[in-house]
Amino acid sequence: MDLLDRYLAAVAALLPKAQREDIVAELRDLLLNRIEEKEEALGRPLTDKEREAVLKDFGHPLAVAGRYGPQQSLIGPTVYPFYVFALKIALAVAAAISIVPALAAIVLGQANPARLIANAAFDHFPSSALMLAGLVTLVAAGIERGWVPLTGLTEWKVSELPVPTKKKGVFETRFNAVAEVVVTSLFILWWTGLWKVDIASSMNVKHGLSLEPSAIWAALYWPILAIAAVQLVGALVALLQTGRVRLRAAFELVLGVAGMALTTVLWKAVPLFTVQPAGLPEAARLQQVLDMGVHVAMLVSGITFACYIGAAAWRLYKGAR
Q: Where do transmembrane segments lie in this chain (predicted)?
């Protein structure tokens, strides 16, 4: 038995019986053509060593049998792009369901923040990510093998695809920066008392009730002023240095962290406003509703600032790429 027969016999042993003869015949013709082309190029018959080199270049019998045998991959090339897209969504969901409860617990002051973040990062997220990734993989493998029907998912129209949106241009970026500069400047002027605004009437409630700011606002005078100053500088950077992506992202990251810290302090300082006079039943009911509204607002603000911090950190990492 020559080298070609031994090679084809090794490949045939790894092929299914139904297609074995046809595949071996096809491989024999293909390899004989390669050997003949090599002999024509050299002008002489090939030696055993040269014939072995041709067969070796064609591939190991295991690889050739896998190439011609039934499809063995868990997820094929057609389903793979959809699988990767679904896997990214699953990982994002795992991160959300792990981090958001931890952030909410931090805002509520229920436990040590470092311990909560560590549990979310090293315990909750890996388990959630593995579970969701495994589920997505099983569904993709089922789709690949026809076990999961795709009724309705394969019917799509180009006209129903989303319309692409243009990226923010320089004009739009600077317009937003101008608006931020104006609003932040007005706030700083009002906060420092340079711009007098009568808000006493807005603090009056019906039935002789009024709202009185708590002492926390006086304690946070300088921190809030510092945050507003950083926001004003960041807006000026966005206005004058549009291309400085990382510098703007750094300001946004600082503002997000400061906003998260401010939200935590305000949550613990509730009530932020007290209804006066406090002895009336109407005042007690209004105080309860007001405090509940503040708690909901602080919780939403904490989640928003967490997302803001994540987006700013990502932009800082990616930069202008």
A: 82-108, 175-195, 215-239, 251-274, 294-317
CA–CA gap between residue 196 and residue 18 (Å, rounded): 91
Per residue in 141-196, pLDDT tens?
877 766 666 655 555 555 555 565 555 555 567 778 888 888 889 889 888 888 77
> What torsion, rounded to 10 degrees, do the Cα atoms 234, 236, 239, 241 define?
-70
* Look-up of token digits 């549009």: 242
Can the peptide bond before residue 277 be classed as cis, meaning omega within 30 degrees of 0?
A: yes
Residue that is written with structure tokens 């909560």 in the block:
116
pTM: 0.47
Residue the block writes with tokens 């302090």:
265
Q: In the numeric block, which tokens belong to residue 175? A: 């317009």
Find out whether 244 and 237 touch, Cβ atoms under 8 Å: yes
- Residue 183 CB contacts under 8 Å (≥ 6 apart), including other chains: none
Helix (H) or strand (E) holding 320: none
As a whole number of angstroms, the distance between CA 93 and CA 180 comes to 32
- Give the separation between CA 320 and CA 122, rounded to whole angstroms: 31
Phi-psi region of 146 (alpha: psi -120 to 50; beta: other; left: phi over 0): left
Residue 11 has pLDDT above 50, yes or no: yes
Classified as helix, coil or strand, 208 is coil
Integer CA distances (angstroms), 272 to 69, 197, 261, in order: 72, 20, 16
Identify each DSSP E strand in the chain by its residue range.
Answer: 204-205, 209-213, 273-276
Q: Where are the domains of the chain?
A: 3-68, 80-156, 170-318
